Amino acid sequence: MMINCKEAARRSSELRDRPLRGMRRFELWYHLLICKFCKIYYKQIQMLGKLSRLIGKASADSDELLECLSDATLSDDAKERIKQTLISS
Predict the structure, then answer these.
(1) pLDDT digits over 49-86, tens only?
(2) SS3 (DSSP) at 72
(3) CA 5 to CA 8: how far, in whole Å?
(4) E strands, 1-89, where?
């Protein structure tokens, strides 16, 4: 049985806290193969996870931040605004 988008979003978020096992992982993987919108959401969740870990590092410098943001599908202007906000914090 295929999971719906709401369940796929929940599992994508859950994956940030702990690994999914067995059928739960397979069902998410299968759904992401078929649903491009959930796949985009999954990638965004992963990007937010990377950013939050980077922010959590006390010694984070702007080069690490730029490397992390280079994988993102944000405009250059948005990346620069995020960078400036994080540096000034």
Answers:
(1) 888 777 766 455 666 666 666 665 667 887 788 888 77
(2) coil
(3) 5
(4) none
